Batch of 2 targets.
Target 1
Amino acid sequence: MRINVIGGGPAGLYFALLMKKRSPAHEITVLERNGPDDTFGWGVVFSDKTLSYLKENDEETYAEITNRFETWDNVDVVHRDQKITIRGNKFSGIARIELLHILQQRCQALGVDLRFRTEVSAVESLATACDLLVGADGINSTVRQTYELHFQPSLSVRQNKYIWYGTNQLFHGLTLTFRETEAGVFAAHSYKFNKLTSTFIVECDPETWANAGFEGMSEDETRAYLAEVFANDLHGYPLLSNNSKWINFVNVRNEHWSAPGVVLLGDALHTAHFSIGSGTKLALEDAIALYKCFGETEDVETALREFERVRKPIIEEYQEAAYESLVWFENVKDYMSLSPLPFAYKLMTRSKKIDYENLKKRDPQFIAAYEQAGS
Ligand SMILES: Cc1cc2nc3c(=O)[nH]c(=O)nc-3n(C[C@H](O)[C@H](O)[C@H](O)COP(=O)(O)OP(=O)(O)OC[C@H]3O[C@@H](n4cnc5c(N)ncnc54)[C@H](O)[C@@H]3O)c2cc1C
């Protein structure tokens, strides 16, 4: 089979390597506009479940990833300068660039043709030159736009602003920090992903953003302002930029998941708010799901139909939970009057995926403290 993949992010690379491993006779080309060392973002997170899928499907990349990652089992909620720890939430983090290098090297070892610094604009001619065209080209997907009559995408831009930073302050667990200032409420989502660095995402509502005056600020002024807001959390470490800019989260959905001989994967196909887990996890799991469908049949249209049938309900459920979570963060100022324990409980149960019983199983001590605080 001849497969062209547009986009050398986690979805495109992982799908390419899995298909090539299964059948070295497949001719697989990945076209990526950036160089092998260019990336945005900082660390990416995986749940234990995602790691078990990675192990099942390719031991080699699993071993490389787990050699380099950091793990934790706590969510820490910081509110009114008090830290509440909730255990039983096992996650791992790795630098996005390290993950990409691992996947690139595995692709190369298996004989996938990786073409960096190759911008694709003529999508249709690439599609006719192969049996399967994979649009793994991220949130602003050209493939999705080219075939929009087939995919029928809907994109909804959310109101909150957020910005991805790194920092050398290590957060040993997924740490959700809330700081109330004169401008409004700021939330930070942070976690370490190697021995020296943490991801540090700051989010705020549009009123807070306007009150703070970010519109007229330079990148350095913005970093300095936010470092001041989170001074008690960063302990003097600066925020590190990797071309970091304020953006709005965009919820991407597609009514249909394929056009004849063309399929979307990862962020091109769907997004889920970062507060519930990373897009990288979903991108890798998409790649596995599509690869499995080609294990059942070599017929492209049958495999693509099966991919949508099997994977779409899982993604829809995930997006629903992610939606509840993003709405919670959009309305966080309404919860700021709660004291730290009830605030942490509300936060943990925001997506309805985790309830009282579930939390009690994960961390009975937290629930005992919560009940005591309420009595
Ligand atoms: C600014 C930013 C920072 C982020 N930081 C983090 C983070 O720190 N942690 C985290 O877990 N998640 C982060 N995310 C989310 C995460 O990057 C995505 O959810 C995940 O990477 C999705 O994987 P993907 O393979 O579907 O797409 P991507 O990783 O976006 O990969 C798509 C690839 O396609 C390439 N491409 C696009 N169009 C073309 C074209 N026409 N021709 C050739 N190549 C093309 C792009 O260069 C890119 O390499 C971030 C997202 C953004 C926008």
Target 2
Amino acid sequence: MNRIADWDDTIVALATPPGIGAIGVIRLSGKKSFLVANELFSSKDLLLQPSHTVHVGFIKDEENILDEVVITLFKGPRSYTGEDVIEISCHGSPFIHEQIIGACIRKGARLAKPGEFTQRAFLNGKLDLAQAEAVADLIASNTEASLRTAIHTMRGGFSEKLKELRERLIRFSALIELELDFSQEDVEFADRKQFYALINEIQQTTTRLINSFKLGNVIKNGVSVAIIGRPNAGKSTLLNVLLNEDRAIVSEIPGTTRDTIEEVINIDGILFRLIDTAGIRQHAADVIETAGMARSLEKMKKADLVLYLFDVNDNSSEVGKIKSEIESQDLNYLLVGNKIDLAGEAAARATFAQYDKLVFISAKQGLHTEVLKERMVDVVLQGRVQTENTVVTNARHYHALKETEKSLTDIRLGLDNNLPGDLLAPDIRRCLHYLGEITGEVSNEDLLDYIFSKFCIGK
Ligand SMILES: Nc1nc2c(ncn2[C@@H]2O[C@H](COP(=O)(O)OP(=O)(O)OP(=O)(O)O)[C@@H](O)[C@H]2O)c(=O)[nH]1
Ligand SMILES: [Mg+2]
């Protein structure tokens, strides 16, 4: 869309976290950034310096020296926002930050709103909307996997592909709209076969992206893992060994864990939220245990992954029953045979040979817990996606993709029924609209304000 924005105002904000630090960076963007900075910088005339250079000197407010700083110059359009940008690296004291920002405002800048720098970058065509939103995800990412997906989206990710498909659809749409002008004459400018092929191609892409959303969400928000099983199976011991700390109480008394305990671990860059639950058995000893068991089942139903832990030395018939129960609820699961230190691994393997999603461990001795971790990651990735691949993590994109898919189904239906162009046109417009919403080629101001208000100030 490349609307070159023509704002008169120059914005300023602290780009680093507020508080004390070694340095703080204050950022200015807009037509007057160089003028504003130059009036405060006493050491040399910044207006005479080339772009992409760095200058050391003093910031003065009238006659008061505020700080010794390093100033980096970026002349538009070669800058983050596409406008003239100045970055002032000063000392990391909130008092200094306040003084310098105050001085910039007195010289004509105004305080930036949250996300306003990125919003300008978007409006100046430096980033599309999906990329701009990924900047926020990147800042918020707390695991390697979420970081990688955010970087991938920020660098262009799926936007390029969607833009290209949308452009091809626009061409078809133009031809079909043209048919409307000749509706008396029964002509077809748009080749229906080629059009069908394009619709298929768009649908393949949207379906893949929609399917990636579940994984995307998992990467962004973590995978919830419910550890369930009979009392004394060793659930709390497993939680502790995975966390590498004595978090939950372990004892030989069945029914030790009464309520759920949640802790977070990072395995191979994916965040897992482990939930240790109260053991489940036929007859609970008291009301509290009964309540705890009900909660365990609740957690199990909501979990992204269920670890069913059992003692390999116990009666083996129960495992099959539980497995069918979990499968009937369509849950992701792994069976975990614990306490192989007592039975011996070979004996345990022989007893439970018929199960495939099964890992044998000794929680107490930390035996094979690495294997279990690997299997947990495998279940999440299910071999289908690597995190570098395109993954949708944003609910707004997901919604727009779903709507795109609906419109594609309608277009296809229209084509199957040989509908004339004037009846296809509204569905095509709808499809173009939702595809464009993702990359921001179609946008309205409320949406933009909403998206950018989720950013932190200074970004
Ligand atoms: N030999 C052996 N003992 C284990 C192992 N894992 C756990 N235990 C023991 O089994 C007993 C029960 O362990 P917990 O971790 O408290 O079991 P739980 O499943 O949390 O039990 P509840 O909270 O009562 O449902 C404790 O005495 C543990 O030391 C193991 O791998 N080998
Ligand atoms: Mg326990």
